[in-house]
Design a protein that fits this description.
The structure is a single chain. This protein is of the alpha+beta class. The strands form four sheets. The chain has a six-stranded mixed sheet, sandwiched between helices. Helix 2 packs across helix 3, helix 3 crosses helix 4 and helix 4 runs parallel beside helix 5.
Length: 350
């Protein structure tokens, strides 16, 4: 175990209460705005005090509210990449990367050598004497990562490191970041809003909502069994809460869904993919046991699919091909019948 923390921090409307352990792995912290993701990183870095609890790394306490222990940020073996990188504008790229080790008393020649080694690793050796204002967004991100890693931290914290990049640069830099994170030692935490970033970069995902851990596991596990509307939206699923009885789930918001599993009873979650929803202009023939009439609320094209919102007894989203959307003349207000096979519906205990 590297990181062990049980922290409580109240900051305005935020009441953060998180228990978390992280080993030699990459953990993605996901959650909506205001969930406490950045505050969690700042607490671990020593930039925010805790109101209660503890933080320890490698068995050494960094924060302990009961024993009045607090290790200042400069004395913690932490590397942090901020969302806007926070490079020193008056320093060269080499000086920015060397700064963390210089501030720990390493002599200039050695710090320069370590910075040059990292410049080569992030493919920026030819930009060593440039100032941050002369760099592209992708180059600045690489410099910020090299600065965070040059001191070989036991805890690496990255706060939305790809958010400032355009779509083209994001794909390339994500690939590079994955390689560097895989090679880095210690515990690595990355805050992101992007499910793709979490899937590509992390070994494990922790979802924060309203200052609490709402769900954790691999991205595949979370996508398979979402436990909140936020997670369901993140992975693109229709999601409901209800009560199961004899193969039927009565939804908390009204309406029923027939499921194939008759063994689950009591409070449950129900989820199904929009691609499992078939749309027609009248009640279709076939085996689908779930059929609801409703009105189209919105029609959005995403690459080779069209996502359609339908408001009815069970409000849902469907995904159809552009050809099907044209054949059905789908537009807001259009009356349709949505159908879903019971075998396409996942049901699991709440």
């Amino acid at each position: 175990m590297i990181l062990d923390c049980s922290i409580r921090r109240r900051l305005g409307a935020l009441d953060l209460a998180v228990d978390l352990t992280v080993g030699e792995e990459v953990v993605a912290i996901l959650g909506p705005n205001g969930a406490g993701k950045t505050t969690l990183l700042r607490v671990l870095a020593g930039l925010e005090p805790i109101d209660d609890g503890h933080v320890s790394v490698d068995g050494t306490p960094w924060d302990d509210a009961d024993d009045d222990v607090f290790v200042p940020p400069a004395q913690r073996p932490v590397g942090m990449v901020f969302q806007d990188y926070l490079l020193f504008p008056f320093m060269t790229v080499r000086e920015n990367i060397a700064f963390p080790v210089r501030s720990r008393g390493v002599k200039k020649r050695e710090a320069r050598a370590r910075a040059d080694s990292w410049l080569a690793r992030v493919d920026l050796a030819d930009r060593a004497d440039a100032k941050p204002g002369e760099l592209s967004g992708g180059q600045a991100q690489r410099v910020a990562l090299a600065r965070a890693l040059v001191s070989e931290p036991r805890l690496l914290l990255l706060d939305e490191p790809l958010a400032a990049l355009d779509a083209g640069a994001r794909i390339e830099i994500r690939r590079e970041l994955r390689r560097h994170l895989a090679e880095a030692p210690g515990a690595r935490l990355i805050v992101t809003h992007d499910a793709v970033d979490a899937s590509v970069l992390a070994d494990r995902v922790v979802v924060l909502e309203d200052g609490r851990v709402a769900q954790e596991g691999t991205m595949a596990d979370i996508a398979r069994h979402p436990r909140s509307e936020y997670v369901a939206d993140l992975v693109g699923l229709n999601f409901f809460r209800g009560t199961a009885h004899d193969g039927t789930v009565t939804l908390d918001g009204g309406g029923d869904i027939v499921v194939a599993d008759h063994n689950v009873t009591g409070a449950v979650y129900v989820a199904f993919h929009p691609r499992a929803v078939a749309l027609s202009l009248r009640a279709p023939e076939g085996s689908a046991r779930n059929r609801w009439s409703g009105a189209v609320t919105d029609v959005d094209t995403h690459a080779d699919r069209v996502r359609v919102g339908v408001h009815g007894p069970v409000p849902l989203a469907a995904e159809v091909t552009p050809e099907a959307a044209r054949e059905l003349s789908l537009s807001p207000g259009r009356q349709v019948v949505a159908s879903v096979k019971a075998t396409e519906v996942r049901v699991y205990p709440a």
